[in-house]
Structures are given as structure tokens and as C-alpha cells.
Amino acid sequence: MPSEWADLRRPEPARRESRALLKDLTADLHVHTCLSPCADWEMSPRKIIRRCRELGLDVIAVCDHNSAENADAVMREGLRHGVCVLPGLEICSREEVHLLALFDGLGPALAMQKLVYANLSGENRPEIFGHQIVATDDDEVLAECPRRLIGAAGLALEAIVRATHDLRGLSLAAHVDRPAYGIIQQLGFIPAGLDLDGVEVSWRMSPAAARTAFPAIGPLPCLTSSDAHALEDIGRACTVLRIAAPTLTEIGWALQGLYGRGLVT
Amino acid sequence: MNVQQIVDRFELKVAGGGGGLARTVQGGYCGDLLSDVMANAPAGCVWLTVQGHQNIVAVAVLREIAAVVITGDRPPDPDTLQKADQENIPILQWGRSAFELAGELYALGVGRLAPA
Description:
By secondary structure, chain A is of the alpha/beta class. Chain A has a single domain (23-237, 249-264), classed as TIM Barrel. Chain A has 10 helices and 11 strands.
């Protein structure tokens, strides 16, 4: 029996303490698809996964604006080619702050989408905001999402974080270094008591530099990702996760630095 | 009154969208939450905001806004200017607060309520 198997059969606390199974996985946890009105047409499931393979990315999260309608197709394509794809959304709150909501499975992601859609008004005007393509895993156009995904959901930050946690997801404030839709710029500081699991800084600076430039980040865990809207931007910023498997529990432990898990800098 | 006249009167910097300077100004609006502006800005208004993100151009096109004034000496993003040039939406810059410029514009009659 391989030693890892024996490891898995140990009682839970021992397994958690074991570092034998840990590996360093390169993750880009904020990638858009052609569903986002501001993203390139080229951001289709097959092309995204092909690019991830070229770059050697182990894990990505699909986070379109206020929607997870393309997550399934990218997950399917990722499964075929050995790229772990987590479903997520980049939700625009009532305060016009962007929050990443990451999930383990499609069910919770679609439940989150349902809540967001119930609080999102207006129809898209493709000629103004851009097309919103729902794709199949064969890169066929399945439909065009008629909702105005560029808009803000009528949900307060606290409500979005709570709903994300209720669905066992992780909630991260997106691109906190940015003037547009970043929490620090929009609100001046990160509200005490907002139960974020961490913050994301954009590709423009390292998490370490962001902590100095934005003291408001405080003790929150800090990772970086590409926020790619075009194929060539995928992986322009990545986070190396030291985890046993690309699950949200493990990523949560890595953010908190528990059980030997962590963000490799 | 058109956008060019407002530019001249208050010495606003034209950062982009110069092709739209002949647009007629029919009112004014102040707002930094794009969702609010998207829902409430009147057509033909001059819109005062601190936002410099390219989405301001899309909002301006959607609401048929005459011109956007970025207040407080903030810089527009380069993407914003590119989009503004395509759409002929003037992007203007004002060095002081929105309050001051709004007051000046209102005194000129821009966006003033009709007498009851």
C-alpha cells in the first residue's frame, strides 16, 4: 500500500497534522470568461484551459461578474485536461465593491448566482457594455445572458459574505489596491466585523507591497491573482498554495496558515 | 449651452472625447456610485464624479450624458479616454471639488428647477 494511502487512513487529526501530502499548487483564483461583458470573446472554456496548461497552472477559479453561468463548461474542460477549476463569482455589492465568492462545487455557486440575480436589475445592452456569452465546453455559443451583469447587485457587503459562508464558500475582497470597485477606495477602510476570509491584490503589486501601501488590509490573509479578461493575462499574477488538495477547506487552511498549509511567497 | 462653453468658462481640461464638445447641456448630475447614475442621471446632463474607470463612458452612453467631469484633480484611466474618443463623450477634468463646480453651474442655470 502506498504510504499516502496509509496516511489517509489515519484518524483525522493526525492526517491534518501530516505534512507528507502537501504540495505547492499554482493557483490563479480570479479568471473571467466570455460571459463577462468586459472580457474578450477569446475567453472560451477550451482556450482558457489550453492557456492554463501552457502556463502550468494547477488551479483556477472562474469568477465572472455577478454570474457563474460559464463555470460548468470550464470545469468540464478542466477535468479533461487536469486543471482544477473552482466555480466562483465576482459579485458587485450595493456599495459597488467587488467580492470574490469561491465554491467547491457547482451547486453552491449556482445558489449564490440565484441570490445575486434576484437582486440584479436591468438588461444588458451589448452594443454599450459588451456581449455576455454562455458557452459550452466545446466552445459553442449556448446563449447570450440577457441580464446586466456589469451592474451592482442590491446586496450589502455583509449579506454577500454571510451568504457565501452559508454556502460553504470563501469570501475575498477583490483587487483591494484598485481605485475602481476596490473595498478600500470605495469605503475608505475595511469595515470591522466584515467576516472576509482574505483579500486579493491585483497583478500590479505583490501582497507584501500591498500590505505596506494599504495598511487597511491589516491582519487579513492576502493573495494575488490575474483578474484576467484576456487569454494573455491569465496567470500574470498567481498564488502558490501549499495544500494537500485543491479544495476550499484546504485553501481556507492555507489562508489561515493552519496545519502546515500556507501561501508560499 | 454646450459643453465647449462650459469648458471655456471654467477652464476645464479636455482629457478625451473632444469630438463631443458641441453637445448641448440640458442639466447636471453628481454621483460616484455608477448604479445610481445609471438609474437616475437625466439625459443631456453634465455628470460630475470622482470615478475615472472606463465604465463611466458606458454609463454616459447609456444615459445619453453630454459630458463627464472628473472632479478633485483625479486622473481618468487610459482605457477611459480611448473609449471616450470612440464614443465622442467629452471627459473633462476639474481640479477642485464637485460641490464647487456644481454650485457654479447651478448659478449659471444648468439643471435649475423650473419655478413652481
